[in-house]
Amino acid sequence: MPITHRAAVLGSPIEHSLSPVLHTAGFEAAGLEGWEYSRMLCTADELPGLVRGANPSFHGFSVTMPCKFAALEFADEVTDRAREIGSANTLTRIDDTRWRADNTDCEGVVAALNELLGQTTPRRAVVVGAGGTARAVMWALRSVGCTDVTLVNRSDRSAEYADLSRGMNLRFVGFDAGLADLTSATDVVVSTVPAGAADQYAAELAHAPVFDVIYEPWPSAIATHAAANGYPTVGGLSMLAGQAYAQFEQFTGVDAPRDAMRHALLEHRRA
Questions:
Q1: Is the C or the N end of the chain the one with fewer CB within 10 Å?
Q2: Is the same domain home to 151 and 194?
Q3: What is the CATH number of the domain that holds 16?
């Protein structure tokens, strides 16, 4: 079967990306013939030329670091949520020359929260870190009805979060803020920092259900402590799958076969 429809993930480094596992499984389960999904090494500076010069068979690109800001700047159209979050992880072809930027990371966060908490709405949340992933987390928390968020970070970046926290009570605290008491009084803890970055505070942060965006190594230190305290935990694979479903649907125009995609991801990780 000749390849007539393509998509790819862009970033650097890129060999670690699990996106091909998800999307390829989706193509097969949805019965989409002639589709191919690949990895493409790409820096932020290279993104505009690569995407603009892409073969017409390319319907879309998943975008990872360090290209998310460049994708937002490059696009001809930008979704409201991508503009508000301030970065894009998805580029979808509009026509022969134009591309639309979106950020589906927030959908991945919602999927992870649903897996962690079920039908329970987290009214209070503690978010660890204040980088790009934390912005997608804030958007997602607001969308599910969270009203009080405490951001734990080494610096106060309240001004940068003013738009994202509209209608919410937001405060910044440092890592010396009595984290055990803080997390004991919250509905969910979301860690957005890189692996190992907050391990020295893991025991203090683990007094509520935990969503940690990393998936390697797993379980993370905070997830291990939370589980030992009797709380449910979920990792970054749930977010990865959740953001991929929305990308798949934008690229292909068909509903994502979610169960098949998630099963393929989990099987790949077990292998």
A1: C
A2: yes
A3: 3.40.50.10860
Identified catalytic residue from 6, 23, 39, 68? 68
Cα distance between residue 151 and residue 149, in whole Å: 6
Do 90 and 36 lie in one domain? The reply is yes
Question: Where in the sequence is the domain holding 52, given as residue range(s)?
Answer: 5-103+238-270
Distance CA 22, CA 81 (A): 23
The string of pLDDT tens digits covering residues 207-228 is 999 999 999 999 999 999 999 9
According to DSSP, the β-strands at 148-152 and 188-191 are unpaired
CA pair distance 90, 101, nearest whole angstrom: 6
Q: Tokens 């919410």 map to which residue?
A: 168
Written in H, E and C, the secondary structure of 142-169 is HHCCCCEEEEECCCCCHHHHCCCCCCCE
Q: Which two tokens stand for residue 136?
A: 């997608």
Q: Could you give the angle at the alpha carbon of 142 between the alpha carbons of 136 and 148, nearest 5°?
A: 110
CA-CA distance, 256 to 186, in Å (whole number)?
A: 33
User: Which one, of 32, 27, 35, 29, lies nearest residue 2 by Cα?
Assistant: 35
pLDDT per 10-residue tile (average), the chain, 271 residues: 95 97 98 98 98 97 97 98 97 97 98 96 98 96 98 94 94 97 98 96 98 95 98 98 98 98 95 80
DSSP state of 179: H
Sign of the CA dihedral running 221, 222, 223, 226:
positive
Q: Which residue has the tokens 């079920």?
A: 118
